[in-house]
Amino acid sequence: MKNAKRRLALGLALMLCIGSLAGCGKNAGEAGNTSKGETKNEDAKSGSAADEKVSEVDTSEEVKLIYYLWGGEGVANQDILAEINKKLKADINATIEVKYIDWGDIGTKYPLLFASGEEFDMSHASPNAVMPYGTIATQGAAVDITDMLDTYAPTLKAEIPESVWASAKVNGRIYGVPTLYSEFTPSGFVTRRDLAQKYGVAEVNSIETMEAYLDAALAAGDMVPMNGTSAMAMDLYRLLIDTTGSWISEAPGISTSEMFLAASSAENYADVFHPAFTGEFEAFAVKMREWADKGYWTKDVLSSQQSAKDNFLNGLSASYITHMADWSGTYGSINDKLGVETDFWCFAEENGKIKRKMGVENTTVISTTSKHPERALMAIEKFMTDESYYRLIQYGIEGRQYEIVDGLAKQPAGYDPEKDAGGFAVWSLRNDRFNIPYATEDPRRYELNEKWNKVAIDNPYVGFIFDPGNVTTEIAAISNVNAQLGTQIMLGKTTQDPVEAVAEYRKQLEQAGINTVIEEVKSQLADFTPVGK
Amino acid sequence: MSVRKNKDGFVFRIICYLVITLFALICLFPFVLMIVSSFMNEKEIMAEGYKLFPKELTTSAYEFLLRNPTKLVDAYTVTIFITVVGTVCALFIMSMAGYVLSRRNFKYRNAFSFFIYFTTLFSGGLVPSYILMIKLGLKDNILAMILPGVVSAWSIFLMKNFMKSIPDSLYESAAIDGAGDFRIYWQIFLPLSKPSLATVGLFSALGFWNEWYNAMLYIQTPSKFPLQYFLQKIVSQANIQLLIQQGAVVNTVDLPSESIKMATAVVAIGPIILLYPFVQRYFISGLTIGAVKG
Amino acid sequence: MGKVKEHFKSFGHELKSNKILFLMLLPALIYFIVFCYIPMPGAYVAFVDYNLKKGIFGSEFIGLKNFEFLVKTGQLWNITKNTLLYNLAFLIIGNVFQIILAIMLSEVRSKWYKKVSQSVILLPYFISMVIVGYFAYNLFNFDHGFINSLLNSLGFESHDFYSDQGIWKYIIVAFKIWSGTGYGMIVYLATITGISNEIYEAASLDGAKAVQRIRYITLPLLKPTAVLLLLFGLGGILKGSFDLFYNLIGNNSVLYPQTDIIDTYVFRSLVGQFNFSLSAAVGFYQSLFGLIFVLTINCIVKKIEPDYALF
């Protein structure tokens, strides 16, 4: 279905931030204590601390685990998997079969996976996925692993800090294994250094300098300053939220793919509101209309088909808005296609609002339909705590898919995409400790990561999963309002004058039930205390 | 054929030619555009959109599509198989059903007609159908691509409608001769229904040819992918590959994703449009001459 | 009770006397029972608060609550009206076009011309709506669009199609006709082919001109087919065509008041959350409306000409 393709585009943008995998589920009683019967030794190669506990675990029965991942099957995947299974069989007497849900099919097949009661063992999950982690957890589709960790994955339990475990908790129980990869994905404005020099703009680090750059691009006339699709509305929305005071973006309640709620500050995380009702929003709407009228983006932006990123990469746009991980990951392509240097102005940096990503954004869940949840957990532990496993599943076979040169991973000389292309979309199994940067990533990514690690604030909502059950109607209605008037306002394309349009938008939001949703969020937040407080 | 005077309706015929030609051109133009675009250079598409007269021509999109010919051949084989098998079964089942529903002596034909039509109105949705197919053991089974589409209410009604127009006298004379319903159907009605069989057959074949949804839901073995699904995956791979490579070793090959979309469409349409001329002869000449006399 | 028994008896009797007919109908019936009627109770999900583990029938019944979101933004009337009008336009104008072209094609003499033009006219059916969307954008966009370039070169000003609310209903209907005529006219061609040539011969011997032939023979003989196709289409009067609208209009909300249909509206509403029950509720609404519509019209047709009715 074509609509799935659009969802895919949305999903991808999110996936680059790597949504968390939410795997929550009621403990169906299958997990845990069934296999404590015999005590048999297994040849464990992992850390010695685990050896004592491991001897309590029975791995006499050979088990085949089914692991659902997103993406397609690369030509070399079977080979990589064979290598992995050799080790896995020796270590925990299990083998893995990966099943794939291709990008375009996620919208349909991923929810079906849980709704149809299909038998499988592990799956990728995320609060931003079309079937969110929270739902999977609260509706009993993921195994409650809280009590299993000590017995079956003690190394893993120790490896992942308590604060990260907390992010995967739903009602105090853990339903999935969060990722250990620190990523910062705040939004920002990408500019071309060569153009900036040409236009005489020193550095873009504020809305004023951004305007200067765009004005100059407009005057130069050879390309559209910010050429993109209606998706830019969300980019501009993030620009507003991130640069305004201490507003915390992405407060729970409304999906982050549309105009979401905000909180007034990290301390006042419970003071949730919709930015549309503020004066700052009104002023911004007026500015966006100015920008549209000036011609920063095309007249037909609402119907335009080529994404902002594609336009930028092909020299049809002087800038685009994206998040840091995407920008730094596209480094290789930018070099190849444009041969220029780019700069990134992070919106949230100035007001110190860069949030740490919650580990739960990419989680691995164990399905309640699994017959071997303990073994699945042990396999997950291997992938995240044992470097040899880590490298296989994340990078492939050394020498064939990658080689390490100067501490960077790159394609080996004999690499043939027809035979060697492969890889798994296992962001949920990443671990900072073992991560090897790619040669095609912008090295600034790691510099920025380090820099921001020092100043970043914790996401106050770590560990809070909003249950939309009582307000599904309102949310659906609000989605519509956001898609129509909301998007138009952000792109300055309203038929009315912007101030009137904002008034109308507020009215429509109220009619749709925004206050009900906010009340619901607040009441659920009342029982919640952020981690570390 | 008929004895129509040449001068009769001359002006009218000219109008016919004109109108049809005009409409045909409007239909042809985008298709030609698609074919030409599939040979276009990716950069030119990005910068200037699809054109009829591009500055450069390249076969890189087709090279990308055909670089794995065994897989493509597999996909074609699967699709041809399900199209042929599916269409034959469909024709048989549906022409019988249409025949039964057209018999005026069949007392419950209206009730059954409604029974069949109702299924086009209400549906249980994806989840129950999915669970049913799995329970029927059709997961990763080629039949999953044939069975759900083998009967169509619309085609049954078409057959019923057409068979109603076959004169009753034919039925009666055969019945008097002692023929049972099935024989009458098989020996008299079927041969006379060639145009509608061709119609329903064509529609069925088109449906099976375009099959991808059931494949997406139920088929996992790549060698069982039908053509449309296979091509779709290539297109999404071309678009996504660079992004996926965020997490794997990056392949910065310039993928001609825009022209691939066009090439995909051309490759998908190709064969079936060639089927049409074969079937057309059933729509062109009348086959009922002399039937009533016989 | 007595009446029911009578019905069963007469059904049993009919079964025996027309055994062969039942057997011939059986495969199709089995198909519908297995693939349509068995899953059909799943439509109940429209009335529950769907829970993954509890399944469709274990989930809590909440009556009409799932239908609320349709009403909440006050757009229900507008999208229903749009869907209804567009579908009626597609159905009626589409069929008229198909009939006209089919008749014209059958009047034309040259065989190769017929074959070629038929094939060409069928081509748009194969072009996916995604590609149609791209082409439309290439045609209509303000800066580089084909039409605007043409207008400019003729000295006219560019027209902002994507903000023009009034013009899209024509554009959409035109695209639908372009896309569906080749496929739809096949049925009419087949029907015309089935008309015995002797009738035409007799008519021309009587001195009838071409136009008269068409008016008094072809058209009336096409009537049953046309009525069938129209009636059949009525059941889906609130459904369908999502691909067309989604790819042509997309996220251009400026055009929504005139071009938003139920399916696109629902798609947008649910993009922020995945909810089986909500989409099932909409489906139910569409189905129910279609059912009532069809039953009514079918009843009317039955009174006028019982043979033309669907059932």
Show the largest interface.
Answer: B-C, 105 and 97 residues
Largest sheet of chain B: none
SSE order of chain B, one letter for each helix or strand: HHHHHHHHHHHHHH
Q: What are the secondary-structure elements of chain C, in order, as H or E?
A: HHEHEHHHHHHHHHHHH
What's the number of helices of chain B? Answer: 14
Named CATH architecture of chain B: Orthogonal Bundle
How many structural domains of chain B? 1
- CATH topology tier name of the largest domain in chain C: MetI-like fold
The CATH architecture classification of the largest domain in chain C is: Orthogonal Bundle
- Tell me the CATH superfamily of the largest domain in chain C: MetI-like
Please state the structural category of chain B. mainly alpha
For the biggest β-sheet of chain C, the strand order reads 1-2
CA(first)-CA(last) distance of chain C: 26 Å
How many domains in all of chain C? 2
Poorly predicted sequence stretches spanning 5 or more consecutive residues of chain C: none
Question: Which percent bin holds the helix content of chain B?
Answer: 55-70%
Into which percentage range does the β-strand content of chain B fall?
under 5%
* Count of DSSP strands of chain B: 0
Instruction: Find the CATH superfamily of chain B.
Output: MetI-like
Beta-strand segment tally of chain C: 2
Give me the oligomer status.
Answer: heterotrimer
